[in-house]
Each structure stands twice: as C-alpha cells, then as structure tokens.
Amino acid sequence: MPDLLLFLDTPPEVARRRLVARGTDVDELEWLKACDAAYKGLPEWGAFVVVNAARPTSELVDDIVALIGDLQAV
User: For residue 4, is pLDDT > 70?
Assistant: First the structure.
C-alpha cells in the first residue's frame, strides 16, 4: 500500500464543464457520475485521502504539497 493515496474529488458536473471548456475528449455527465460512484464504492475507499479538486489550482496544489510534507515529517 502506498504511503499516500489521493483522490482528487471533483463533482461530475464540474468535471464535465472543465472537459467542455478544454474542447477535447468530452465525456457524458452520466458516465462521469458512474465513474465517481465506482471510485467511491471501492473497498479501498477508506484509505484514500480525499482532496477537493473543484477549487482553484493554486489551493489544490498547496493542499497536496502540505500532505506530502506531512509524510516527510514523520
């Protein structure tokens, strides 16, 4: 098992808007909802550290760097 397993949690609606804005590889909302539910239904789900990825990138990166720093401090 890895020392840190992150799940970048993005609501399917936000993910869809981001995909449409990029203009490439646009997935249907229902498929994104099914993927979200599938990940959250994994037996390993309790081991994931859930990070809110719907926020601005700078905040997301700051949180990830802090989580990695916490590992290095141990």
Answer: yes
Residue with tokens 């949180």: 63
Q: What DSSP character marks residue 73?
A: H
Which tokens is 22 given?
Answer: 């990029």
Q: Which helix (H) or strand (E) holds 6?
A: strand 6-9
Joined together, the tokens standing for residue 70 give: 């916490």
Give residues with Cβ within 8 angstroms of 15, minimum separation 6: 27, 32
**β-pair partners for 49:** 6
Torsions phi, psi for 6 (to 5 deg): -95, 140
Helix axis angle for 29-40 and 12-22, nearest 10°, is 130
pLDDT in tens, 45-60: 999 999 999 999 999 9
